[in-house]
Design goal:
Elements (H helix, E strand, L loop, with lengths): L24 H11 L18 H6 L6 E5 L2 E5 L4 H20 L5 E7 L1 H7 L12 H25 L4 E7 L3 H6 L16 H12 L6 E5 L7 H6 L4 E5 L8 H9 L3 E7 L8 H15 L6 H4 E5 L8 H17 L3
Parallel strand pairs: 3-4, 4-5, 5-6, 6-7, 7-8
Antiparallel strand pairs: 1-2
Length: about 325
């Protein structure tokens, strides 16, 4: 495991996790740069359609591995077709938007779908999940690692002098590790992935960040936090509402090792929230852990509970604004 590099964001920073409502990349980038300027990120806009979704977007980064959309989902293909070209076009528009508006920013985050979730989502031509074929899964992971490296390099070229943070989204990780990924037929489940393989695979993709900062996000319950730490994550992003008392010891160990905790305190869809309610969640979380109050702003980054593609535009803007204020309040 590589030593944890200095955090490139200031104490009290807040951020989002990726997806937002809407279809206009320039408008979404403007929102992010305006509301969470200390740790902005590349917005994902799934409402644009096929190819803007998490899996299709990341599939567009794969090197020497094509996919296409079939009625049953994204599937490995012999060559790139219209669906993949559309996904690449969406991503290019997003990159153009941040290139135009983001010159001079100190730090910037980009999100990709992780190898475990990708392997559980993409199917082989024989309609089995990629995860079921060890060779195919290894090829997918290697392709993703190279694609992620090139993606980070592209961002560095477009935003010279900006520190890049790589976030790897793994919502399916708990299901992959416990054998709960359904087969395409729906009548069975895919065999659980060996923990050692999971750690090594995730580590290979996180390494694409090179000397940058590496974050793993999982908004599902029962996250094996030790897998994330062993794979070299410098930060883990989790949903505060799903943290159990049994997980506090693992979280405490991560913090003691220098890992940052990105805590999802704002619901991802329209809900009545306030500065006090969000701040209260953070305070209770920190009290349960028993750490010194002075290290809260440096260690914890407030975020939404998950991506906000299903939220209204007004709510998404309010969440971003409140999270910024919550982060700033942690320094008082």
């Amino acid at each position: 495991m590589n030593p944890t590099p200095p955090r490139p964001w200031p104490p009290g920073a807040a951020t989002g996790l990726g997806s937002l409502p809407g279809t206009d990349p320039a408008e979404a980038v403007q929102l992010v740069l305006g509301e969470v300027a200390d740790l902005p990120y590349l917005p994902e806009l799934p409402a644009r359609g096929l190819g803007a979704d998490m899996v299709g977007r990341t599939a567009s980064l794969l090197v020497d591995l094509a996919t296409e959309w079939q009625p049953h989902g994204w599937t490995v293909a012999s060559r790139a077709g219209r669906d993949l070209r559309q996904a690449r076009d969406f991503l290019t528009r997003d990159l153009d938007a941040i290139t135009e508006q983001g010159q001079g920013i100190e730090v910037f985050k980009v999100q990709i779908c992780g190898p475990l979730t990708l392997g559980a989502s993409i199917e082989l031509p024989n309609l089995h999940k990629v995860l079921t074929d060890h060779g195919a899964f290894a090829d997918l992971a290697a392709s993703l690692a190279e694609g992620a490296r090139l993606h980070v390099d592209e961002l560095r070229r477009r935003l010279p002098g900006t520190r890049i943070v790589l976030q790897v989204d793994e919502p399916s990780m708990p299901a992959v590790l416990t054998g709960r990924v359904p087969t395409p037929s729906g009548y069975g489940t895919v065999r659980s992935l060996d923990r050692t393989v999971a750690v090594a695979t995730l580590e290979s993709v996180l390494a694409a960040a090179d000397d940058g900062y590496r974050v793993v996000h999982c908004c599902a319950p029962e996250v094996d936090l030790t897998v994330l730490g062993d794979a070299g994550a410098n930060a883990v992003a989790i949903d505060a509402a799903l943290v159990t008392s049994a997980e506090l010891d693992s979280i405490g160990e991560l913090i003691e090792s220098g890992t940052s905790i990105w805590l999802g305190v704002a619901p991802a869809t329209d809900t009545a929230i306030s500065l006090d309610s969000l701040r209260g969640q953070l305070d209770r979380f920190w009290q349960h852990l028993g750490f010194n109050r002075d290290s809260l702003a440096l260690t914890v980054v407030p975020t939404p509970a998950c991506g906000m593609a299903g939220a209204s535009p007004d709510y998404a803007r309010r969440v971003m604004s409140l999270l910024r204020d919550v982060g700033q309040s942690l320094q008082s």
